[in-house]
Amino acid sequence: MWRLGIDAPAPGAGQRPGGPTASPAGTGWAILAARRLPATRYLYVACQASDQVFGFSIGAHGSLQPVPFSPVAAGDFAFGALVSPRGRHLYVTSVGAQGGAGEGVWAYTIGMDGRLTALPNLPFVDRGVDPLDPADDANGPVGLAFAPDGAHLYVSNFDTTDVSTFEVAASGALTGTPETRPRTPGNGPAFDSVTVRPNQGPVASFTVTAGPAGQPTRFDASGSSDPDGQVARYDWDFGDGTHQANAGPQPTHVYRYPGRHRATLTVTDNEGCSTSLVFTGQTVVCGGSAAARQTTSVVTP
């Protein structure tokens, strides 16, 4: 996450971010988020004082150009900005620091040209149970972080000093979970940023017991591993033009002719992480790497 400070001092402990020191429209603390599409990259800035979100396309040498219909409205005192792991939606927290309407989480669909379209029924508000005040909604949303699989969004609340958990629908809509919002000891209210440890990528490993041409050759990938979950998928390329998708850890294959073949295994973990590094604009959500793929020579007599 990148944070840009313009003409406004950092908030002190126990003070809502920027409340009494809000600067003129177009300035103020801003949180940036980025999305990368196949041909174009986009940058988004949440502006606190003007209650808006600005979008820019990123051109050659990092130059910025406004996207169509930018800026768009957000709620009172827009603060945090975060792009979903798949790059389809932008989420912005509105703290409500100046007593205006729209405190909560605002959500937008990101178009192929970078433009933002607000989802219906905004803002999203956590109506979950506060263990210290069961009638209290979450107040002062500030920080945002996605679970690596994109199924849940976590929001830190400045005023209620707790963390909300939202379920994320395919449409991008948010639904607060019924569980209590956990608090942590400390001086508050002062919750600010929140982050989630990235999903670590899996490691492929297999052995081969080669059979003669026309007889089964046995593969064993039970040594493959995932540091923070389980290997969920095994995709095989047997090196003779034959591929077998999701064939499990112990397939067999019959080579028709003797010779040397380069067999390759690619593994994927239970959170969909494999060989690719997935970066959302603020953080890595999948630490995928080349370790998720192994190639071994198979000699068929």
CATH architecture of the largest domain: 7 Propeller
Count every helix, treating DSSP H or I runs of 4 or more residues as helices: 0
Number of strands: 24
Broad CATH class of the largest domain: Mainly Beta
- Derived from helix and strand composition plus strand pairing, the structural class reads mainly beta
Biggest sheet overview = 6 strands, antiparallel
End-to-end C-alpha gap:
56 Å
Question: What would you call the shape?
Answer: elongated
Radius of gyration using CA atoms only:
24 Å
Overall mean pLDDT: 82
Which characteristics define this entry?
301 residues, 2 domains, 0% helix, 6-stranded antiparallel beta sheet, Immunoglobulin-like, elongated
List the helices and strands and how they pair.
Layout: E1 2-4, E2 30-36, E3 41-47, E4 52-58, E5 64-66, E6 72-73, E7 78-83, E8 89-94, E9 104-110, E10 116-118, E11 141-146, E12 152-157, E13 162-168, E14 174-176, E15 199-200, E16 207-209, E17 216-220, E18 231-237, E19 243-244, E20 252-254, E21 259-269, E22 277-279, E23 284-287, E24 293-300
Parallel strand pairs: 15-23
Antiparallel strand pairs: 1-2, 2-3, 3-4, 4-5, 4-6, 7-8, 8-9, 9-10, 11-12, 12-13, 13-14, 16-17, 17-20, 18-19, 18-21, 21-24, 22-23
Describe the structure.
By secondary structure, the chain is mostly beta strands. It folds into 2 domains: 2-176, YVTN repeat-like/Quinoprotein amine dehydrogenase (Methylamine Dehydrogenase, Chain H), CATH 2.130.10.10; 199-300, Sandwich (Immunoglobulin-like). Helix content is 0%, strand content 40%. The strands form 6 sheets. Strands 1, 2, 3, 4, 5 and 6 form a 6-stranded antiparallel beta sheet that branches. Residues 1-15 and 18-30 have low confidence and may be disordered.
